[in-house]
Amino acid sequence: MQEKSHKKISSLGALSIVVGMIIGSGIFLKPGIVLYNAGSTAMSLLAWLTGGIITLASALSVAEIATVIPKNGGLYVYLEELYGEKWGFLLGWVQSVISYPASVAAQAIAFASYSAFFLPLGNQEQKLLAIGVLAFLLIMNILSTKYGSYIQIIATIGKLLPVIAIIGFGLFSGMAPGSAGLSLSIKATAGFGAAILGTLWAYDGWIGVTNMTGEIKNPEKKLPLIIGGGVLFVLVIYVIFNIAIFYTLPHDTIIKSTTPGADAATALFGSAGGAFITAGIMISVFGSLNGYIMTAARVPQAMGERKALPFSNFLARIHPKFKTPTNALIFESVLAVIYILSGSFNTLTDMLIFVLWIFFVMGVAGVFILRRNYGKGSGYTVPLYPIVPLIGIVGGLYILVSTVFTAPIRSFVGIAVTLVGLPVYYYLKK
């Protein structure tokens, strides 16, 4: 656990990590896919609501574990303490070496790709810009955790502006001619499950804040409110944003569009709308990139403290002046640069989605083991226990089953890559 003097992240900073890591480009891109699978506007909203409830149930469950085990490293630490060293190591291995740096690389490239809307950039120029943005955020997070937290707060406010603008004008400027409107027909469709699956990806990212629990002020009391409040806020924003899209664009246009958010902005604000929403997406991705850099480094740093990785002493070191995990930040960023240059980041992240959800379901289920081992705490406890954790577990299992059926080879390759970490684990134990 970090010393008290290292607790530099305020409640607002932690909340901005939750909201900022969830709201990326997904909300601007997913409405059409979800509407297509759901079959109607009412069923689409129900899918967004269901995905949000599953996410909220998972968040409220993990929050109880975080208050009892308030240490940096997040899910890696929880699995190690609740299921044993080996399970924690496998997750930490995947997160440190592949998942987090590949996600950082993907966010950096996404930022550079959207920049091409304003600047004529070729493939190599986009990679250089991606590395440059990554380097800037790395330096800010090395100099002070507060700098990273301030950037996260500003970026989160910035990314909400285009969302709020579309909601405000879409809902209150009068229904646009030929808009989809709202159908009140609730009728189950074959694609409803796929629609929920699409929303769950858009809700992903909130658990990253638990990686920094040891640096949050008074986490035992504040973290449950931060996690639960952040997810609930995003759920409400997502549902209202979709209603605004339905009031702005025709049904068929939403379904056919790969960028319904940009199309809605163009319909509401004219030709400047595309530039407006693109800038908003860039701010969204910038905030997500900063959030991933901040939270990613805390996993190898926590593993280093436990001597669970090669070069553990190096990775565990906190900078004597800046009080930040400088070496772990550099380690994750160097891997991310390698993935940017190789162009392999999307393949890696897609391949490991299935594996990460296995560990995620174990994390939600861990609240039952926590109660057995530690009893019911005197502080925060999951409301409506055991119903709430079971909702999170069922939702996670649904993702796993769906992924096996839709991408069986990718799922099993992801497991194989994860198991490569076992020889490293046994070598270090030996």
Which descriptors apply to this entry?
430 residues, mainly alpha, 20 helices
Could you walk me through the main structural features you see in this protein, from its secondary elements to its overall organization?
The protein is mainly alpha-helical and 430 residues long. The protein is built from 20 helices and no strands. The model is unreliable at 1-5 (pLDDT under 50).
List strands and helices in order, with pairings.
Blueprint: H1 11-22, H2 26-29, H3 31-38, H4 41-68, H5 75-83, H6 85-115, H7 123-143, H8 145-172, H9 192-202, H10 219-248, H11 251-256, H12 260-269, H13 272-296, H14 298-305, H15 312-316, H16 326-342, H17 345-374, H18 387-406, H19 408-419, H20 421-429
Helix pairs in contact: 1-8, 1-10, 1-13, 3-4, 3-9, 4-9, 4-10, 4-17, 4-18, 5-6, 5-17, 6-7, 6-13, 6-16, 6-17, 7-8, 7-13, 7-16, 8-10, 8-12, 8-13, 12-13, 14-16, 17-18, 17-19, 18-19
Number of beta-strand segments = 0
Shape label: globular
Average pLDDT taken over every residue: 86
Strand content: under 5%
Give a short synopsis of this structure.
With 430 residues, this protein is mostly helical. The protein has helices spanning 11-22, 26-29, 31-38, 41-68, 75-83, 85-115, 123-143, 145-172, 192-202, 219-248, 251-256, 260-269, 272-296, 298-305, 312-316, 326-342, 345-374, 387-406, 408-419, 421-429. It is globular, with a radius of gyration of 21 Å.
